[in-house]
Amino acid sequence: MWLESLRMGSWRRNEDNSPWLSPTDAHSEPMLVNGGDRKICPASIMEDAYLGCRNKTGIIMLHHPECFTRLGSDGNVFTTPIQQVEIIDTASRIIIEKDPNPVSENRLATRR
Question: How many domains, in total, are found in the chain?
Answer without folding.
Answer: 1
